[in-house]
Target: peptidoglycan lytic exotransglycosylase
Amino acid sequence: MDFDLQRVGFSDLPGWHDDNPLPLLSALERCHRQVTTVKPHKTASLGISTADLMPAYTAAVGSEVHDESAARAFFEDHFVPFKIVRHDGKSGFVTAFFEPEVFVSATPDETFRFPFYRRPDDLIDIDESNRPEGMDPYFAFGRQGDGVIGEYPDRKAIEKGYLAGRGLEIAYAKSKTDVFFAHVQGAARLVFPDGSMTRVTYAAKTGHYFSATGKLLIERGKIDAADVSMQTIKQWLDDHQDEADEVLWHNRSFIFFREAEVDDAGLGPVAAAKVALEPGRSLAVDRLIHTFGVPFFISSDSLTSIDGGRPFRRLMLALDTGSAIVGPARGDIFTGSGDGAGRLAGAVRNEADFFIFIPKAAAARYGHGQG
Model:
């Protein structure tokens, strides 16, 4: 592997004694419920298993920990921190994501015209057992029709009507950009005119490569690189609706959703770990390297927008992943749901130090210089 793990003490974690990891205890309980009643999380290449994490999961269930000092002591009792040191000498890197809140209608009209789609029947999973000769190995989805497997129609084809009339619409939004950013985030809360709410979460995608809209707008001189954020991208798209389709179609990837209840309005969607995300404390990681349910302490001097001007220093739990989240020290911070969370997430692109918390019983397997 292209990184080492360097064992450190809790006193070596910047700001550890000022952090309040109490919300993670309930997240550990949710992990315990998932891995004991459904199935364990897959052990990734670093080798930390659900069995390694089980003592901490079990101790969190019904825990009497009720303050931040005791919460820190809980993690000190069950884990050993290691700094992730990349061989290329570079720091880690964090971005952020959130769950948009979108006003919708169950039926289309002149105002609500842009649909969220369920997964279509002709979209199939692709792996090495059925991949046609010559198809890009990147594709994990494809279209099956008349016994032939090929690429699924892309964003442009779908938005020009490929799926029309098939009854796949979940709801309709007022703004195409609202739908697009729900695609980027992989989930959304949908709010209907009567105030009722449901949630849509990722179900599948067409399989095409994701292309960053912000990068395209920078390259075309539409937005200054220093100003790019989710908010500035959305503003440009809203202000240039005659050009928006062509820009959005540049990103050929298209996301399909499934409906889910909003069981607890204080929690985020159920993500890749099949556990509801804890706002401000959940991290998307590279699932090929890191096992879900592992805690990470993230320290970034330059990321000051989330904690009121203070450097970001938080213990987080690995509960999600993403196609852009690649590498041992790469993370995506879940800031929560709604516009406020979107403003927090929009401009996060910061270097950060990553400290992985390895369960005590497993820590002996990971010495300095191993990775």
Summary: The mean pLDDT is 94. The CA atoms of residues 303 and 350 lie 6 Å apart.
